Amino acid sequence: MKKAFFALLFTIACTLVQAQGDRPEMADTFRSNGKIYVVFAVILTIFAGIILYLVRLDRKISRLEREPGLR
Amino acid sequence: MRKRWWKILCVLLLLYALAFGLNVFNIPWFDVPRTPILHETIRNLYYHVGMWFAMMILFIISAVHAVNYLRTSQLKYDIYSRQYALIGMIFGVLGYATGFIWASVTWADPNQPAGASFGAIAREPKLVGAGIALLIYAAYLVLRDSINDVDKKARISSVYNIFAFAFLFPSIWIIPRLLPSLHPGGEVAPGVRSDNPALDPKALSAHMRAVFYPAVAGWTLLGVWIATLKLRLRLIEQKTLIND
Amino acid sequence: MALEAPESRVWNGLFWVVQLFICINAVAKSFLQEAPGRMLYYHTLVSPLHFVLAKLLFNALLMLLMSALSYGLFALFLEHPVLRPAPFFGLVLLGGLSLSLVFTFLAAIAARAQQNAAIMAILGFPIIIPQLVLLMKISLSVFSATGVIPLAPILLLVVMDLLVILLAGILFPFLWKD
Predict the structure, then answer these.
(1) CB of C171 within 8 A of CB of B63?
(2) Which chain B residues are within 8 Å of A32, Cβ to Cβ?
(3) Cα–Cα distance between B243 and B237 in angstroms, integer?
(4) Of the candidates A24, A61, A71, which has its C-beta nearest B39's C-beta?
(5) What is the DSSP letter of C35?
(6) Which pLDDT value is given to residue B86?
(7) SS3 of B189, please?
């Protein structure tokens, strides 16, 4: 995911490089044209998935810990 | 879930690092310094370097629990020590992998396909140091699995953990500084600093720090969270074994 | 000439790798070839601290001898590209000392785990690589007549040796406990 984002950033950076100025090019239009939200939505979805999975695991283990017969 | 506040904190910190690290909301304060070669990829600092910091902190926790085990001979500390080392290794592998991706567009010869110059990149002192760190803990796991007796396993692997940890610091933090390196914070040639100093922690801009340190804290807490899940599971297994 | 002599960089690399293997074999013998019964006997005689210090001392002396010997053999059978033999000889002794200290302690671990020399190599290689890299880097400077011998890595090696002795003294009693 990060790699894909990276590739995206890099291709954008590459196209910008063709119009070389004297200061290093950055992905300046990437944010103003709103495309960054697409990337961020993808990242958020994956992150939410991982965190939800961790929370569920945490609950399950807590239930196991409370189970009688363990102590 | 006992004591859930730090897990919430972990999620919040990581959300902050993801959102403002990428400057999603286009706030000028979170703009990164304009540097050649690196361009926008400098934002990888929050994620790639965060992996290494998290790894180091997890290894420190692992070593502390190894000391605790030797002091008290309570088996639970050995379980802690192993799980933290394992999660630390996972973060280390992620750090290595992300570093490879990053280096393949910033260090590598642009006229060759990414990965073609891996041989040259992999001989970087910092990468060798990182590889050594991973190998040390891989050896730790091998050593553990080669001993059957539970107490003996715990004692011997705790001793190795502490011994290896003492060598981890020179191999990661000191020796790479003595050798020429492309990596930021190193020297390209004796007396000449690397030409992309933006990643040198001393040259880090204050604005980047404001994202970097919370990101490190977030990644570390995530590692601790996963490790605690694993070690709680191991403790339950241990108890059911005793009861059966 | 039937075989060509290696150039100095290859000579250097070859030399230190050979040192590494000499050390593994020499040191492994001292711990792994002792019967468990004899360890028990030692246990009744001396404190673990004295025991490990004696082991470290013996292996260090053994390795110093071996290093000097192998340097002589290298100079005799391969060419001798070292332009300043005296500093290099000192470095050889320091390197031999560092290797022997680290591997003595690892041999103790391997012996307690009732394993062969293979596990010692697995445990030892990642730990020893930094020192080996340092040694190779320092020794490259004596291959030219004018190279400056860097002081910082040498100090670092000495500090690491002291660290090993300290850690061995602290940790070995735990290994011995049964």
Answers:
(1) no
(2) 26
(3) 10
(4) A24
(5) -
(6) 94
(7) strand
Residues 6+ apart with CB under 8 A from B121: B100, B103, B104, B107, B108, B127, B182
User: What are the residue ranges of helices labelled H in chain B?
Assistant: 5-21, 44, 50-72, 75-106, 118-122, 125-145, 150-169, 175-178, 206-243
Give which of B153, B177, B191 is closest to B75, Cα–Cα: B153
Residue A61 CB partners (closer than 8 Å, separation 6+): B229, B232, B233, B236
CB C24 within 8 A of CB C116: no
d(C-alpha C105, C-alpha C102), whole Å: 6
Residues β-bridged to residue B180: B187
Q: Which residues of A touch B105 (CB under 8 A)?
A: 6, 10
pLDDT in tens, chain C (178 residues): 456 767 888 888 889 999 999 998 888 877 777 777 777 788 888 888 998 999 999 999 999 999 999 999 988 888 777 878 888 899 999 999 999 999 999 988 888 887 667 788 888 888 998 888 888 888 888 877 777 788 888 998 999 999 999 999 999 988 887 6
Query: How far C113 CA lies from chain B's nearest CA (Å)?
Result: 6
Give me the phi and psi of B189, to 5 degrees please: -145, 160
Task: Look at A27 and B34 and tell me if their CB atoms are within 8 Å.
Answer: no
Distance CA A30, CA A28 (A): 6
A51 and chain B: CB distance < 8 Å anywhere?
A: yes
B with A: touching (≥3 Cβ pairs within 8 Å): yes
The pTM of the full predicted model, rounded to 2 decimals, is 0.85
